[in-house]
Amino acid sequence: MTTPAPIPQAGAASHGIIGKFLHLASAQTIRDILHTCFFIYLARMDQSHYGEFQLAFNTAMIVLFLGEFGLNQPLVSSLSKKYGHKGDILVQYTIIKGVILMLGWIGVSVFVMQQRYTGGLTNLVQVITAGVGLEALASSFFVACRVQGRQDLEARIKSVGAIVGYGWALGTLALGFAPHWIALFKIIENGINLIGGAWATINKTDIQGLTLKGKALSRTWNTAKGGLVFVLLAFCSILYNKANLFFLQKFSGPHAIAQYSATWEVVDAVQIPISSLLMKSVLFPLFVGLWRHDKEGFDLLKDKSVKWLLGASIPVMFVLAVESDRIIGLIYGKSYVDAMWLQKWLVPSVIFSFIHNLAAYLMMSQHRQNVLFVIYAAGLTLNILLCSLLIPGNPLLGAGLSIVITKGAVACCTTLYCQRTMGLIKWRAVSPVLLATCVGAVLYYGLGFLEIREVAEVGALLPFVVLGLKWWREMKVQALPKVA
Question: Which residue, 35, 36, 70, 481, is most buried by CB atoms nearer than 10 A?
Answer without folding.
Answer: 70
